[in-house]
Amino acid sequence: MELIDVIKARRSVRRFRQKKIEDNMIREIIEFGNLAPSAGNLQPRDFVVVKEPDTKKKLARAALDQDFVAEAPVVVVVCANLRRCAPYGTRGRELYCIQDSAAAIENMLLAIVDKGLACCWVGAFDENAVSGILDMPQHIRPMALLPIGYSEVKTGFASRIDLDELIHHERW
Q1: Dihedral (C-alpha) 84, 89, 95, 101: value to the nearest 10 degrees?
Q2: Structural domains of the chain, count
Q3: What's the Rg (C-alpha) of the chain?
Q4: Is 171 within a domain?
Q5: What's the CA angle centered on 118, arms 112 and 119, to 5 degrees?
């Protein structure tokens, strides 16, 4: 698939078939995530792969009862590593690690589509609950839950705001 086709095909999917995803496929998706740029190449992101049904159910509860999180065969939790971005001080902890995690997430979303899988970027969740469920140390902050699976549904194109409304030249 051409890159533009992958980008255009990406959708938020919340219904998954119960079909196993091979570990090597998940590893490749994470590898693409880690290839994303990061401030100073510090790569301040870590990934927790969750397949255990009870843990996925707890994550779904922590994600404001979004049950589809538990229904996905795999959930990857993308985390910011605050120690790894420490050389940049407060700005590193409060901004760069978030930007770097988001860049990794977008790479992963595109890799997921390219592999014929589907996902939904979940950012609505109780951070403290997710940290507790996954026994995260204090310097690790969960940024997103990525429930991954084979789509149960066909999705259409999501409309976009016209570029002429979004682009500003020289000044606002």
Answers
A1: 0
A2: 1
A3: 17
A4: no
A5: 90
Contacts 24+ apart (CB under 8 A), 51-55: 51/75, 55/133, 55/134
CATH number of the domain that residue 44 is part of: 3.40.109.10
> Which uninterrupted H or E stretch holds 93?
none
For residue 123, tell me if it sits in a domain. Answer: yes
Q: How far, in Å, CA of 162 to CA of 148, rounded?
A: 30
CA 130, CA 142: separation in Å to the nearest integer?
7
- List Cβ neighbours of 19 (8 Å cut-off, separation of 6 or more): 73, 149, 150
Residues in the chain: 172
Residue 108 forms part of a structural domain? yes
In terms of residue numbers, what domain contains 45?
Answer: 3-166
The string of pLDDT tens digits covering residues 5-14 is: 888 888 888 9
pTM: 0.93
